[in-house]
Amino acid sequence: MEQFVEFATNHWMLVTALAVAIMALVWDSGQKAGPKVSTHEATALINSKNGLVLDIREKKDYNGGHIVDSVNISNAQLASRISELEKHKNDPIIVVCKTGQTASAASKTLKDNGFADVYRLSGGIMDWTNNNLPLVKS
Question: pTM of the entire structure?
């Protein structure tokens, strides 16, 4: 640790440039994946704009509790099953995962395939549950 502190002190410009590059990369990835929405914003999109909830968790997790009327296509299967979502190309799509971390990759896949109105549920299904919002079990 001492060597790292000494390196950072002696080469502060390099360390700063690295930190800026990492922040820019994270920001750029977030922009390509679409904006995050809160549970309240997601509910508004679902109710007022006929938003589709795409749950990308595995079937077992989905069956344990999911948002009403959500569509389940696991993250691993999304690229091969994207045609199933074609009829929703002009609707808002809210991508839901367990914690909000893996929704970025699925959102980017959707955007790369022409879906323009794509959102990620911030905090995923865990945040939905923590806000005492209803889940359906299969």
Answer: 0.78
